[in-house]
């Protein structure tokens, strides 16, 4: 297992290196560099200013040369300065990452806490009234656009009832636990409602298939209780496809939820990466996107390890 | 065993929520929806950097105007006034003197005195040492100052004493007394950041230590900045002017206008800034729904919405086609239907509120019949189909671009497309993200028609947009904003003459001639002057929209809650 993990970590480093170049090149090939945008918004900029500013920001050098300089510095732990925020890219990223981890972590945990039991319960009696209701709610969650859902939640809980704040992270001058939780409530609810349906459907599908296997019938014939059959025999096998889906979701966990962050004025990673790409902030965009890539790679590795934990028949050499 | 595991999972979940909630607060939310000592403002963009010298950005101007004072500015009545200085220099008061630069060149020497009580937020007086330091930073090519033109034009600055300085400028222009964009920096704080000029743009305390009170000389100072979320302002104890009413102001960034409205209704914010808030159509709809609870002020101004035409396009090079296109647009109906008549129709680039405006220019009222006649005369005929063709069989087809996602412009585009089709012109919509349109298509002149807006100061000379040497090209590193490629010797002469004409009467005549020429030649199709909508609570007094590029927050100390009636 150790060799397997080490091999996967080396592969992850290689993938990261390749991705860093691809991302750098894609951002660099987008039309309009930051100085072009400055020129467009400032009538006083002269040709000399344009040449001076391009040299200052290193934009007068070929793309590959710029990438090599960036990669060399990044290997030494220096991810450069954000052009938009005039700060070290990692300094800009860190608080946003924390915010996103809180928001997405809470909604992810809540999603799994709701979706998995519902999926299991629905799979027990496929086609029953309960299954139909759960499916209906699941499809509703999948189908409803998250910006609309966010707006409705704001209108009901913040505007009409006045129970929860409409946006932000905490009240100025407060920042206590309860205050933070009330500010998290609506964005977490939006993300959870939007994603619970998908995960519930995966769980339900995997569980239905597993419950039809011979070894389940055997377990029942041996006199195992229904709850034991469900959770001990079926769940461990049914979890494998669900683990794959959960692992894949981790990428979006740290790249953030752009729509939800925008609607709730929540300063997270999604909005930061979006702004940095549009604002041609190479260093910041790269750092953000690489972090999302790294998270996905590590989550996949964790999923592989989890497969072995869920199913002892799976081993890695 | 299993039940125990489930309990453990639940405990982990609860623990996670408590721990995450216990993390230090980095942002805050709003103030209540009634008059108090805190005012919460909603804007739609967060200022990326707070350094006054680096990058021009409306959001930055808006927030910095609460904490910094420019030397001079245009007031809400569009008059040039002193803010940090005591008196505007003029030849009459002797504070301006002509300067002979040799070789027939004329410059001007200006004398300014700083407000005697002006202090930075840490109590250190604002002095000429700050002025000299700011000049040093501004003119250094390594500092990353975007607009170096102002610093190039200043030949030298000399301190007379701690508060008075003279400044030599290389040209005597009519607006010589204005130093609106000369940003005075606190030398006692920023000098350390300037030790290596090439590192200044990332070492500036405005970005590394934005809550340092010594950076600010305005009525407020920044006490908290949460990038992407909000900025908190509190009274500057060393402010030398009228004491501001609100103890604290919080500027919230809510980029989605629907969420901005919801925040307003939930009293998360008290007001929405007109400079960076609701588009006009959304403000009108909001007023219809909530006009009883909020006061909406509409201020038409210097935001000139127009369609730039690429005059190197063979179709658009023909003046008759340009005239036909304009005659076929019912601009009055667009303004009335979409903007409730709040956006006045433009006949040239000068708005009716500017003193240089004239109505005596060619007008183009909606007249599709006349438009068709002009197209026929230009050789574009209807031959059975709905779209005109010329004798060579080419279709009269043009691409119209604007910024993707701008709902109002996309709505106007649909109207234009329909109206132009009625006269036999096929228009394809070619919208692009702002960074592509402004950073690439316009600067490379890779467009036929582009709809966008300019915002400027009063009596702004359109050198960069109309003079023939301001056409972006590879040779001039794509600077200049004459995207149309307008080459007109008469316009060049008028622009040059306006800049150096000190006599108001003679200058007005030159301005009128330039407006006439613009309306005759139509390098762009004038649409309307956009109005900004300020959504305010009924109890808030003193907010005066300016209509130009200098924001209402420059007079934030006049804002106050009305006493209960």
Word description of this protein:
The complex is a heterodimer of chains A (317) and B (565). Chain A has two domains: 2-89, no CATH class; 90-310, MetI-like fold. In chain A, strands 1-2 form a two-stranded antiparallel sheet. Helix content of chain A is 77%, strand content 1%. In chain A, strand 1 and strand 2 form a beta hairpin. With 317 residues, chain A is mostly helical. In chain A, helix 5 (89-124) packs antiparallel against helix 6, helix 5 runs antiparallel to helix 10 and helix 7 (146-160) crosses helix 8. Chain B has helices spanning 2-22, 58-67, 128-139, 149-153, 187-193, 200-203, 205-208, 257-265, 280-290, 319-327, 331-339, 368-377, 407-422, 434-441, 463-466, 489-500, 504-521, and strands spanning 38-43, 72-74, 80-82, 96-102, 105-113, 154-159, 164-169, 220-226, 230-235, 248-253, 271-272, 295-309, 397-401, 426-429, 449-454, 524-536, 540-541, 560-561. In chain B, helix 10 packs antiparallel against helix 12 (368-377) and helix 16 (489-500) packs antiparallel against helix 17. In chain B, 50% of the residues are buried. The model of chain B is unreliable at 1-33 (pLDDT under 50). The interface between A and B is large, with 82 and 81 residues.
């Amino acid at each position: 297992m150790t060799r397997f993990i080490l091999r996967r970590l080396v592969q992850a480093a290689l993938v990261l290196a390749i991705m860093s170049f691809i991302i750098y090149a894609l951002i660099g090939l987008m039309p309009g560099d930051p100085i072009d945008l400055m020129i467009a918004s400032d009538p006083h900029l002269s040709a000399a200013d344009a040449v001076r500013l391009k040299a200052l920001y290193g934009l007068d050098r070929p793309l590959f040369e710029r990438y090599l300089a960036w990669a060399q510095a990044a290997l030494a732990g220096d991810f450069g300065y954000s052009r938009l925020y005039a700060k070290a890219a990692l300094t800009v990223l860190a608080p946003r990452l924390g915010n996103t981890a809180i928001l997405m972590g809470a909604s992810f945990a809540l999603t799994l806490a709701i979706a998995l039991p519902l999926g299991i319960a629905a799979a027990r009696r496929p086609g029953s009234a309960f299954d139909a209701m759960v499916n209906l709610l699941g499809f509703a969650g999948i189908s409803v656009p998250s910006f609309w859902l966010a707006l409705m939640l704001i209108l009901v809980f913040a505007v009409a009832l006045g129970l929860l704040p409409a946006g932000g992270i905490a009240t100025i001058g407060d920042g206590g636990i309860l205050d933070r939780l009330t500010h998290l409530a609506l964005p977490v609810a939006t993300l959870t409602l939007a994603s619970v349906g998908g995960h519930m459907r995966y769980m339900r599908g995997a569980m239905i298939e597993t419950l039809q296997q011979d070894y389940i019938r055997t377990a029942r014939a041996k006199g195992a209780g229904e709850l034991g059959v469900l959770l001990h025999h079926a769940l461990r096998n049914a979890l494998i496809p669900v683990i794959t889906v959960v692992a894949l979701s981790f990428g979006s966990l740290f790249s953030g939820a752009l729509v939800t962050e925008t609607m709730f004025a929540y300063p997270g990673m999604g909005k930061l990466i979006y702004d940095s790409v549009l604002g041609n902030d190479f260093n910041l965009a790269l750092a953000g996107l690489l972090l999302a890539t790294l998270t996905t790679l590590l989550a996949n590795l964790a999923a592989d390890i989890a497969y072995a934990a869920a199913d002892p028949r799976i081993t890695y050499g | 065993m299993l039940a125990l595991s489930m309990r453990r999972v639940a405990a982990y979940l609860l623990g996670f929520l408590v721990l995450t909630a216990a993390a230090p607060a980095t942002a805050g939310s709003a103030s209540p929806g009634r008059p108090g000592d805190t005012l919460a403002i909603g804007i739609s963009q967060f200022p990326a950097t707070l350094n006054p010298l680096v990058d021009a950005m409306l959001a930055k101007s808006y927030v910095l105007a609460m904490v910094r004072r420019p030397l001079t500015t245009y007031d809400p009545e569009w008059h040039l006034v002193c803010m940090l200085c005591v008196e505007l220099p003029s030849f009459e008061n002797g504070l301006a003197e002509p300067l002979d630069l040799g070789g027939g060149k004329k410059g001007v020497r200006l004398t300014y005195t700083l407000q005697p009580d002006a202090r930075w937020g840490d109590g250190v007086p604002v002095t000429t040492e700050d002025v000299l330091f700011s000049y040093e930073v501004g003119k250094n090519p390594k500092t990353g100052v975007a607009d170096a033109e102002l610093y190039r034009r200043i030949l030298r600055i000399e301190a007379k004493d701690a508060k008075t300085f003279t400044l030599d400028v290389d040209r005597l222009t009519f607006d010589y007394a204005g130093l609106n964009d000369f940003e005075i920096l606190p030398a006692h704080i920023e000098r350390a950041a300037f030790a290596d000029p090439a590192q200044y743009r990332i070492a500036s305390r405005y970005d590394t230590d934005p809550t340092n009170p010594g950076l600010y000389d305005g009525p407020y100072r920044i006490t908290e900045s949460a990038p992407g979320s909000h900025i908190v302002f509190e009274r500057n104890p060393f402010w030398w002017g009228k004491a501001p009413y609100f103890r604290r102001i919080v500027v919230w960034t809510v980029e989605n206008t629907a969420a901005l409205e919801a925040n307003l209704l939930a009293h998360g914010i008290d007001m929405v800034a007109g400079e960076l808030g609701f588009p006009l159509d959304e403000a009108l709809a909001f007023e219809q729904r909530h006009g009883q609870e909020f006061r909406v002020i509409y201020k038409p101004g210097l935001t000139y919405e127009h369609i730039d035409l690429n005059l190197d396009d063979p179709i658009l090079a023909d003046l008759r086609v340009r005239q036909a296109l304009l005659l076929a647009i019912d601009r009055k109906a667009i303004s009335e239907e979409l903007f409730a008549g709040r956006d006045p129709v433009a006949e040239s680039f000068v708005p009716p509120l500017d003193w240089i405006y004239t109505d005596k220019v060619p007008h183009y009222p909606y007249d599709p019949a006349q438009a068709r006649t002009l197209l026929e005369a230009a050789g574009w005929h209807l031959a059975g189909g709905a779209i005109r063709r010329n004798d060579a069989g080419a279709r009269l087809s043009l691409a119209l671009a604007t910024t993707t996602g701008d709902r109002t412009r996309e709505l106007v585009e649909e109207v234009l497309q329909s109206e132009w089709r009625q006269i036999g012109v096929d228009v394809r919509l070619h919208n692009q993200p702002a960074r592509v349109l402004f950073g690439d298509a316009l600067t490379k002149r890779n467009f036929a028609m582009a709809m966008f807006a300019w915002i400027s100061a009063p009596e702004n000379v359109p050198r960069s947009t109309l003079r023939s040497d301001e056409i972006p090209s590879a040779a001039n590193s794509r600077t200049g904003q004459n995207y149309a490629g307008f080459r007109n010797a008469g316009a060049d002469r008028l622009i040059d003459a306006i800049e150096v004409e000190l006599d108001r009467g003679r200058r007005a005549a030159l301005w009128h001639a330039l407006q006439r020429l613009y309306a005759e030649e139509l390098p762009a199709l004038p649409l309307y002057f956009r109005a900004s909508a300020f959504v305010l609570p009924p109890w808030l007094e003193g907010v005066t929209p300016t209509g130009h590029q200098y924001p209402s927050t420059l007079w934030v100390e006049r804002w106050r809650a009305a006493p209960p009636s």
